[in-house]
Specification:
By secondary structure, this protein is mainly beta. The protein is built from two helices and 19 strands. It has a single domain (2-264, 271-277), classed as Porin. A hairpin with a 6-residue loop joins β16 (230-236) and β17. It is globular. Mean pLDDT is 90; it is low at 1-7 and 9-18.
């Protein structure tokens, strides 16, 4: 069940991606800030994350735990698995709960991401600097966002290593929801990313052209429960038509208790469990 354990790493990382900029930069950052608020309101001090095989056996060699500082300004996630070296992801938050910086370290790399916001709490820029410590190779990528008078994002400029520039324009519907993300690089239009919402303006689908299927397909699909919490997420493996579907369960206080993962054939891949210490 290696694929499940690989995906577990993605549950705790907010990273700059080559596409789906609105989802990765804006939505994912908002989710990280909401998670901080939930941890603080419940006075969470640490979390142990466990991975289980489809037969309920613990995934061999997998370790993952989160420690939160006393003043909730820092959250450190430690992850280790048989197929991967140990990693540390440290997230730093402002006093009002905005993610300001992450430092991701492993045996051969160091990645730092810095976040800047406007007075309304909108993301203005995200700058990622990654260094391969073995070779000294360094990459830098900056995302600069602009908003309209209603604090809705309208455009973003991505600059990689100071020279490689991509321009992203965003299209909104009549409710102000971002529905299209249109990137242009070197005067060439890149594949458009489409966003869909339910009647309560909750994001339900992130759609892009799939090379394997030769048509538009969702890359993410989201569903929600009666408490407006995410109840499921369907994730399409990049470059293929294969997918994983994750189902989420919660405690009464809103903290996630369990995640269950199935493949495209509806076969159980495994589970993730959360144990909180207060």
């Amino acid at each position: 069940m290696k694929r499940l354990s690989v995906f577990v790493f993605l549950l705790f990382y907010v990273k700059i991606s080559f596409s789906q900029y609105y989802y990765q930069d804006i939505v994912a950052t908002q989710q990280a800030n909401q998670k901080w608020a939930l941890y603080k309101s419940n006075k969470v001090r640490s979390v142990i994350i466990s991975s289980f095989e489809k037969d309920d056996r613990p995934t061999e060699g997998f370790e993952c735990r989160q420690n939160i500082s006393r003043d909730f300004s820092k959250m450190t996630t430690y992850t280790k698995a048989n197929f991967s070296k140990e990693t540390f992801l440290t997230s730093f938050y402002s006093t009002n709960g905005l993610l300001e910086k992450t430092v991701d370290t492993g045996k051969n790399y160091l990645s730092t991401t810095a976040y800047i916001y406007d007075q309304a709490g909108n993301v203005l820029s995200i700058t990622n600097t990654s260094t391969e410590t073995f070779s000294g190779t360094k990459d830098m990528e900056e995302h600069s966002w602009k908003y309209n008078a209603d604090s809705k994002p309208v455009s973003m400029i991505k600059v990689k290593n100071g020279t490689d520039t991509t321009f992203i324009s965003l299209v909104q519907d009549e409710k102000g929801n971002v529905v299209e993300e249109r990137p242009v690089r070197n005067n060439n239009a890149l594949p458009v990313v489409y966003y869909y919402y339910d009647d309560r303006n909750r994001l339900t689908d992130v759609v892009r052209y799939n090379d394997a299927a030769k048509r538009l397909l969702p890359e993410y699909m989201f569903a929600y429960n009666s408490n407006d919490r995410l109840s499921s997420m369907l994730y399409v493996v990049p470059g293929s038509s294969d997918y994983q579907k994750w189902l989420y369960e919660y405690h009464d206080n809103g903290l996630r208790s369990q995640e269950t993962c199935y493949n495209k054939l509806k076969e159980l891949l495994g589970k993730i469990g959360y144990q909180y210490n207060y």
